[in-house]
Design brief:
By secondary structure, this protein is mainly alpha-helical. The protein has helices at about 10-20, 30-40, 55-75, 80-90, 115-130, 160-165, 175, 195-199, and strands spanning about 95-100, 105-110, 135-140, 145-150. The strands form 2 sheets. Strands 1-2 form a two-stranded antiparallel sheet. The chain has a two-stranded antiparallel ribbon with strand order 3-4. A hairpin with a 5-residue loop joins β1 and β2 (about 105-110). The N and C termini lie far apart (about 40 Å).
């Protein structure tokens, strides 16, 4: 497969994928303690910040919205709950436009605490949209796993051809296919978006 040089900041790309990947067989952010550990481990939250059940709900809904957009980028309808999830996050930690260090403008999260940390993912998604890169965040049509499409023409449909595709490249493992951004494991398509109605 042909790959192109990255336009998006690889650090932003990988951080956004880490957020999408916090739920698999287990959920890394479904309690205040787990959410705090995950965010502080990434340097996105101070260790003395309080984390509440409402913060957990906001995090899970924000993740569900992010995954729903990946599903939409793969050609499926956008879950209508996505809009309200993004609106709530933006209300609690609105993005703000500031002057960049080298001139020009840049977008940064506002707010404080967990909402501010979560808004960093919204800022990444916005920057990726402006750069024409956000459409490359997709959900595998085979297993539903979120991934970043690094193919030259952005036409990839599966997280790993040999595991989820039609079988042309049987020797390709998901670890090899997604090694640029980490190791993925499969989960059911659409399961994440149901969180928005569960809490």
């Amino acid at each position: 497969m042909w790959y192109r040089e990255a336009v998006m900041d690889p650090a932003d790309r990988d951080l956004f994928l880490q957020f999408l990947w916090t739920r698999d067989e287990t959920d890394s952010i479904d309690t205040p303690g787990k959410l705090k550990d995950w965010l502080t481990g990434l340097g996105m939250l101070d260790g003395d910040e309080a984390v509440t059940e409402d913060d957990v709900r906001l995090a899970r809904h924000s993740r569900a919205a992010a995954r729903a957009m990946c599903v939409a980028n793969s050609g499926y309808p956008l879950d209508p709950r996505t809009h309200s999830a993004i609106e709530e996050l933006n209300a609690r930690a609105p993005l703000k436009v500031t002057a960049g260090p080298a001139g020009g403008l840049q977008v940064e999260p506002g707010g404080s605490g967990v909402p501010r940390a979560l808004a960093q993912f919204l800022a990444i998604a916005y920057r990726a949209t402006v750069e024409g890169e956000f459409g490359r965040f997709k959900a595998c049509q085979g297993c539903g796993w979120a991934y970043y499409d690094e193919s030259k023409n952005g036409s990839k449909k599966w997280c790993a051809m040999g595991l989820c595709g039609p079988g042309e490249d049987e020797g390709v493992s998901r670890t090899e296919e997604s090694g640029r951004v980490g190791t993925a494991r499969a989960r059911s398509p659409g399961a994440e978006t149901r969180e928005q109605g569960n809490k």
